Amino acid sequence: MGEAVISLRGVSKEFPGRHAAVRAVDDVDLDVFEGEIFGVIGYSGAGKSTLVRLINALERSTAGTITVAGTEITSLSERALRPVRAGIGMIFQQFNLFASRTVAGNIAYPLKVAGVPKAQRAARVAELLDFVGLSDKAKVYPNKLSGGQKQRVGIARALATSPRILLADESTSALDPETTADVLGLLRRVNAELGITIVVITHEMDVVRALCHRIAVMERGKVVEVGEAYQVFAAPKHPATARFVGASLHDVPTPAVLERLRRRHPGRLVMLRMQSDGGAGGYLTRSLREHAVEGTIIYGGISEISERPFGSLTLEITGEPGAVAGFVDHVVTSAGATDLGTVDAPLALPLHAAERAAATEDGERA
Ligand SMILES: Nc1ncnc2c1ncn2[C@@H]1O[C@H](COP(=O)(O)OP(=O)(O)OP(=O)(O)O)[C@@H](O)[C@H]1O
User: Fold this and answer.
1) Where in this chain does the record put each ABC transporter domain (predicted)?
2) For residues 165 and 89, is the Cβ–Cβ distance under 8 A?
3) What ipTM was reported for this prediction?
4) Ligand 1 pocket, residue 295 CB under 6 Å
5) CATH homologous superfamily of domain 4-234?
6) DSSP 212
7) Atom 31 (ligand 1): residue with closest C-alpha?
8) Does pTM top 0.90 for this prediction?
């Protein structure tokens, strides 16, 4: 991993509220490393946008220090911030293109502001149009473009001044799934081919799945969990993370579903976590055979993060009672499985699984 290109220490941002101040970002410590794609996730109002706006000083912090590419920016004047901002590109959910300028004009704009001579501007614009695959749209106005094409222009414009960092605030939230995949593919190229560090804000699991190396989970202004995307999602430590995973994966039965499953399946129920090495299948088959019990999958969900499977399966285990107890003991101790008991002796979901199920319930209600 490279060195930290963005560092936050004890950073807070308060906005004056009608009654009391709103602390949108609350005492955050964070490092984003050179060359990574870093995700900031959390529900609406968690403080994600404010956090990212602090990084390019669109908002000024009320406490703490922020270092971007080696420069401590919190005490800089607007004038001194200019070169720092030139090293940070930004793209937005609503694209924020100038309707009155052509595609080429939009991309050239930051170069014009930076005082780049006209001939050089034209050459750079052509290069960027080629990179984002829109060479044939140079003279077109944004209102003639699809959402995905608009975001490509947004990306080209953000890259015009060759920044080291790209900030993407919900950059695919206004796009359909296919176009999203397209734009995410382009962002991956920006990272891999140009070596640009990317910070993405998102509430969408698909974006994290397709893009992020590491993530920070935010709740009420605080970063409550940070780490490698797979580690954080496969074994969430904070309820906010568990809810986020549950809302997209729907792998843990809600209490109502569990109740129905219990009535329909009188055997012992056990929930198995998918292992990061993808070995759950083999492990499960072997353990069932060794204990001479039968297992039927009755609920679950498996997906991928960073190309590794994660999720959980709920099984009904049947067989001779001693053998069933032996099997359940074995998977609980050696694989972190959850014993859910039987219809007559039910056992509750552990806290993080219950949070995951609750998010599924919210999703169903929404
Ligand atoms: N300019 C502002 N003035 C007052 N309060 C603000 C301002 N900007 C943000 N807030 C408040 O700060 C908190 C965090 O908002 P922020 O937009 O950073 O969250 P978010 O996680 O990005 O949410 P969303 O995804 O809905 O944009 C919210 O309570 C919001 O109302």
Assistant:
1) 6-245
2) yes
3) 0.92
4) no
5) P-loop containing nucleotide triphosphate hydrolases (3.40.50.300)
6) -
7) 45
8) no
